[in-house]
Amino acid sequence: MIVVGGEALIDLVPLAQPPGALLPRPGGGPYNTALALGRLGAEVAFCSRVSTDGLGESLLSGLRAAGVDLSLVQRGPEPTTLAVPSLAPDGSAAYGFYVEGTADRLFTLPPALPDGVRALALGTCSLLLEPGASAYEALLRRESQRGLLTLLDPNIRPALIADPALYRARFLGWLPYVSVLKLSEEDAAWLGGRVSDWLAAGPSAVVLTRGAGGLTVLTREGAEHSAPSHRISVVDTIGAGDTVNAALLHRLSGMAGQPVDWPGVLAYAAHAAALTCTRAGAEPPYAAELSG
To answer: Per-residue pLDDT tens for 81-130?
Structure first.
């Protein structure tokens, strides 16, 4: 089983018509990653704190429909976090957030994960908003130390980072507990570090998403592999990076103890992300769409 920890929220996606209209869609980087893993056919559980309000119920319904295990989900009466993406002409998104007093930031450290868990993924807002951020950080450290494959996607949201220097320092403190660091070129530029330094700190691989430039992985052994992006008509890029997370985890968790076929893994992730970009909002593909 793969466990994905982090926030579930509602994206209020702008519509072309009528002007100013917003469409509520399920979202949050970890939520999208768990949903994508379920659709890809992986055994996956979501580990989070979700509101008991109507929006929270709709979020969990979406995960259930994808076959995601919800036994690690905590519940609370606080409202659901809201995110408002603004879309650029190329379909890329920037985000504003409504996070004060919301349920997901009150996540607490759960007991040890089940023995059958092979991998853990964390990232995005959940590692920013206290007190939940410290609980997720403790989860990362504990499960890494017992040998799980761990994937970190910082998925930088500058609007939520009050102290960039403090965040960058915390990020470096996570790296010894990370197996695979996945981030966009924009995230890497914001963090301001070097991939070689990050690899030396702990991860065995760093995967960079480069938009239309495709995907690149650099490994601790000095290898570098890339996969091109697919030529598609982009509706928006919401959830594309999260789909990459899911595709990476789905393939890597099945290669335990074996050499990683990075060209194959990256090609699979690029295909899955491309399909997500052809749809409005975070709508990752199903396994059948990636076959053949």
So the answer is: 998 877 666 656 677 888 999 999 999 999 989 889 999 999 988 999 99
- Specify the 3-state DSSP secondary structure of 282: coil
Mention every residue, 6+ apart, whose C-beta is less than 8 A from residue 163: none
CA angle 3, 97, 208 (to 5 degrees): 50
Q: Which residues lie below 8 Å from residue 239, measured CB to CB, with a gap of 6+? A: 27, 32, 36, 276, 281, 282, 283, 284
**One-letter amino acid identity for 23?**
L
Residue predicted with more confidence, 193 or 33? 33
> Is this model's pTM higher than 0.90 or not?
yes
Q: How many Å apart are CA 81 and CA 30, to the nearest integer?
A: 13
Residue 274 neighbours by CB under 8 Å, 6+ apart: 229, 230, 232, 240
120: closest CA among 164, 160, 174?
174
Question: What is the number of alpha carbons within 13 Å of residue 97 lying toward its C-beta?
Answer: 24
- Using a 10 angstrom Cβ sphere, with 0-12 exposed, 13-18 middle and 19 or more buried, the burial of residue 76 is middle
Q: DSSP for 232-266?
A: ---S--TTHHHHHHHHHHHHHGGGTTS---HHHHH
- Compute and round to an integer the Cα radius of gyration of the chain: 17
CA atoms within 13 A on the CB side of 63: 30
Give dist(CA 204, CA 261) in Å, integer: 14
User: DSSP per residue over 99-157, as a string?
Assistant: -TT-SGGG--PPSPPPTT--EEEEEGGGGTSTTHHHHHHHHHHHHHHTT-EEEEE----
Q: Write out the two tokens for 205.
A: 């691989």
Backbone angles phi, psi at 162, to 5 degrees: -75, -30
Of 106, 171, 151, 156, the closest CA to residue 133 belongs to 106
